[in-house]
């Protein structure tokens, strides 16, 4: 499954419409009804990228100069959890932390919208994964007036300008992160309404997955078009050269997993990470230690 990850990168200067992105994308040369061979290829790509990521994570840890922040956004049932599980399954858990952001607590609402996320940023040498993120503050907060009302914000005279300021704050924040050595990778898992329905029904029918279902999933589904509009604006306003968005077709989970892994490994390799060079003093110390051990 040979693809160019850049094909899924959002170019905000051109303006995007999600309807122009295929959630069930497959390469044009493949038979849409007979794609078993491609699925096997995708699984091979995923495994190859996992092995590459294991190596790159070790270099990331050893070099201790960069961090990597992976952000996953998408509608309910878009596959964020499974993407983390499949793409990151080989990494060393000591150097990787996953944070799932739920409804803000009373304490978190007393701070600015970035506060709780800043606390969970990855340190140098580490990988941080945000399952949902500060982008919820220009999505659910924007779509749901009841959620917006709980934000404890000062009076707002111009709503449109308020959202523009939020986009500016996010872009400036991510610019700051990248300048300080954090590689920011953002993925929107693009799922169709039809596929979401299928997955929600599976949750209800499977006792092992029913616990994941919430009545709010149905309520949020009624606002599909509003969320789609909010996502489009978010993608257009916050896909930057330093922290671009990737719209990942997610109706087929194996396609999403392969593409996300391809972007991650491609981008982390661009850091040209290397093991720290040993000083002459350190080399002598190691040689002495080796000689001491060999005497035993």
Can you characterise this structure?
This protein has a five-stranded parallel beta sheet with strand order 2-3-1-4-5, sandwiched between helices. It has 296 residues and is an alpha/beta fold. The chain starts with 35 loop residues before the first helix and ends with a helix. The protein has a single domain (5-295), classed as P-loop containing nucleotide triphosphate hydrolases (Rossmann fold, 3-Layer(aba) Sandwich). The longest helix has 28 residues, at 36-63. The protein has helices at residues 36-63, 80-87, 115-118, 140-143, 145-148, 159-179, 193-205, 215-221, 224-238, 253-269, 280-295; strands spanning 67-74, 96-100, 127-131, 182-190, 245-249.
Key attributes of the depicted protein:
296 residues; alpha/beta; 11 helices
Architecture blueprint of SSEs:
Elements: H1 36-63, E1 67-74, H2 80-87, E2 96-100, H3 115-118, E3 127-131, H4 140-143, H5 145-148, H6 159-179, E4 182-190, H7 193-205, H8 215-221, H9 224-238, E5 245-249, H10 253-269, H11 280-295
Parallel strand pairs: 1-3, 1-4, 2-3, 4-5
Helix pairs in contact: 1-10, 2-10
